[in-house]
């Protein structure tokens, strides 16, 4: 090429490039300014700097690459307006759009007009209504993240995507059945699916087993029924499974044990699940949360399970029909923080090995069972215990004085048992104690004045025992005490006027004792009542 012609060609090329770039920038700016026009309220003024006189790449929430808008993040801005999906269509380089936690309204059918190159779309916590169009996933084939949670979506659409990894449709008004075979056509890349807190019905489809990459599956708080499909055992990458608060029936499929190489959270609470707990769960060595409460689970608790659940932190089995002895193997769960067996049919005595084996234990709940024997004093070797609830059982013997070593204890509840002997003065060392509920036992002796050292006490219930002596005057120092129930004992002497200093007192029950004195004036300035 002639040198003169080459120079002219290069000059022409350099002249055209800025013009082309400027044109693209103007198109992007026009799209964003159109969005601004649809915003009716901008309480934080985040869009005030959006001005055509300034470089759009410096506008709030805008990220550019090579002078083109690639990301727009206006999340948590309190913006109120209409989502102009069509106006944003010209942002052909946009990859990330985050308008979450605002008040954008619009129909979901218009989402097909959003830029086709989007990879991440977050419109959660807005006011989007209607149904996602069936062609949305086909047209936006590059999407890997989609969150439309906390909106007003009303019905499911056909889902087909080989790229989408995270789909969150939780907290909407989605209705209908997910069991229809055409709802999930392709989900090979799907890692997380959350459709919780909707109005979905029907059974859980076995086709979820096709989503082989799934790590999180959350269908909680819907109206799903029938049995849990055995095919879910094929999801060997599953880490979190939550079907709680539905109407599921039938037994827990043993095949779920196949997912245990990665399963960390299993939530099946508040259903109508029956049968026993599968022994296949013994392979769930990384399981941290097992929540089966509020079901119809029965049979013996397989003691062999807990010996292998070394990562378990929460074991929630309340309100079932589980029988047999309390599992001694719980002592192997070194990381266990919460053990809740409330309202079952467990029998026998509590193993001494619970502590210090489960030394991380913070809550031990066993009310409304058939537990017999004595309270093991070794509970004092679980120093992190905050709650001990052994109410409504058949325990006998004394309350161990060793429990006074539990410096973190907040709730000690042992009502309706056969406990006898005195209330240990050592409990006065439990400085964080809030609730002391020991009513309906056979406790004797006097009320320890040392309890007044527990300045956080809010509720003391010693009703229906055989306690005698006086009410400690020192209780007048309990500024947080709201409920004091001492009825149906053998208390005597004058009612201490110092109780009038308990300014938080709401309920005072001293009935059926041998107390004397006129105590009404002492409470003239308090909110307490004296039934």
- Mean residue pLDDT: 91
Helix/strand class:
mainly beta
- Helix fraction, binned, reads under 10%
Overall morphology: elongated
CATH topology term of the domain at 1-155? Leucine-rich repeat, LRR (right-handed beta-alpha superhelix)
CATH level-four homologous superfamily name of the domain at 1-155: Ribonuclease Inhibitor
Rg, rounded, reads: 32 Å
Beta-strand content: 25-35%
Q: What CATH first level of the domain at 1-155 would be assigned?
A: Alpha Beta
* Major sheet characteristics: 20 strands, mixed
Membrane topology: Single-pass membrane protein
Signal peptide: 1-22
Pfam families: LRR_1, LRR_8, LRRNT_2
Keywords: Glycoprotein, Leucine-rich repeat, Membrane, Repeat, Signal, Transmembrane, Transmembrane helix
What does this structure look like?
It is found in: Membrane. GO terms for molecular function: receptor serine/threonine kinase binding. This is Leucine-rich repeat-containing N-terminal plant-type domain-containing protein. It is a single-pass membrane protein. This protein has a domain at 1-155: Leucine-rich repeat, LRR (right-handed beta-alpha superhelix) (Alpha-Beta Horseshoe), CATH 3.80.10.10. It is built from five helices and 42 strands. Helix content is 10%, strand content 27%.
């Amino acid at each position: 090429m002639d040198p003169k012609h080459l120079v002219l060609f290069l000059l022409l090329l350099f002249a055209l490039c800025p013009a082309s770039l400027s044109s693209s920038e103007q198109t992007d700016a026009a799209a964003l300014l159109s969005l601004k026009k649809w915003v009716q309220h901008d309480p934080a003024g985040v869009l005030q700097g959006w001005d055509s006189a300034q470089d759009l790449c410096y506008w709030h929430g805008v990220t550019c690459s090579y002078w083109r808008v690639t990301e727009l993040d206006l999340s948590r801005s309190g913006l109120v307006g209409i989502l102009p999906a069509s106006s944003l269509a010209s942002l052909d380089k946009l990859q990330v759009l985050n308008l979450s936690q605002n008040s954008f309204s619009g129909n979901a059918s218009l989402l097909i007009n959003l830029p086709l190159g989007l990879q991440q779309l977050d419109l959660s916590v807005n006011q989007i209504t209607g149904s996602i169009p069936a062609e949305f996933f086909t047209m936006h084939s590059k999407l890997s993240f989609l969150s439309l949670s906390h909106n007003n979506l009303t019905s499911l659409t056909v889902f087909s995507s080989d790229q989408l990894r995270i789909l969150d449709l939780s907290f909407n008004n989605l209705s209908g059945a997910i069991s229809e075979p055409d709802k999930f056509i392709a989900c090979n890349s799907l890692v997380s699916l959350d459709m919780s807190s909707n109005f979905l019905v029907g059974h859980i489809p076995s086709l979820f087993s096709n989503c082989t990459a799934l790590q999180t599956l959350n269908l909680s708080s819907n109206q799903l029924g029938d049995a849990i499909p055995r095919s879910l055992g094929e999801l060997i990458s599953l880490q979190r499974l939550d079907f709680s608060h539905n109407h599921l029936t039938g037994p827990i499929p043993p095949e779920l044990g196949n997912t245990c190489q990665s399963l960390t959270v299993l939530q099946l609470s508040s259903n109508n699940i029956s049968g026993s707990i599968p022994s296949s769960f013994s392979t769930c060595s990384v399981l941290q949360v097992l929540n089966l409460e509020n079901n119809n689970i029965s049979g013996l608790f397989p003691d062999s399970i807990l010996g292998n659940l070394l990562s378990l932190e929460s074991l929630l089995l309340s309100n079932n029909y589980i029988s047999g002895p309390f599992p001694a193997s719980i002592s192997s769960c070194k990381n266990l923080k919460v053990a809740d067996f409330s309202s079952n049919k467990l029998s026998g005595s509590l193993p001494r090995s619970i502590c210090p084996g489960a030394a991380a234990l913070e809550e031990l709940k066993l009310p409304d069972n058939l537990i017999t024997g004595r309270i093991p004093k070794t509970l004092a070797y679980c120093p992190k215990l905050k709650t001990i609830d052994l109410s409504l059982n058949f325990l006998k013997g004394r309350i161990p004085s060793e429990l006074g070593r539990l410096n973190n204890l907040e709730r000690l509840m042992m009502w309706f048992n056969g406990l006898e002997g005195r209330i240990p003065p050592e409990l006065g060392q439990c400085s964080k104690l809030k609730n002391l509920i020991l009513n309906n036992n056979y406790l004797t002796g006097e009320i320890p004045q040392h309890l007044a050292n527990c300045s956080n006490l809010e509720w003391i219930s010693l009703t229906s025992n055989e306690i005698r002596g006086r009410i400690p005057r020192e209780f007048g120092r309990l500024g947080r005490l709201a409920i004091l129930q001492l009825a149906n004992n053998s208390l005597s002497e004058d009612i201490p006027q110092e109780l009038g200093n308990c300014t938080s007192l709401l309920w005072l029950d001293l009935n059926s004792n041998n107390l004397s004195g006129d105590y009404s004036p002492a409470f003239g300035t308090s909110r307490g009542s004296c039934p």
